[in-house]
Amino acid sequence: MSPAGAGSIPTSDIIESLDPQEIGGARLLIILRVINL
Asked: Residue 27 and residue 21: Cα distance in Å, rounded?
């Protein structure tokens, strides 16, 4: 996990705060981060 604010904000809250058009990109970034771990 990234040391910068890890666990301080739930991922679901971050996704919900994004615009609908940005949700797909956010999910891709999350998936890539999980794979890279």
From this structure: 11
Q: Which amino acid makes up residue 25? A: G
Q: Are 33 and 14 in contact (CB under 8 A)?
A: no
Question: 28 falls in which pLDDT band (50, 70, 90)?
Answer: confident
Rounded to whole angstroms, the Cα distance separating 27 from 22 reads 9
37: Cβ–Cβ under 8 A, 6 or more apart, which residues? 1
What percent of the chain has pLDDT above 70? Answer: 35
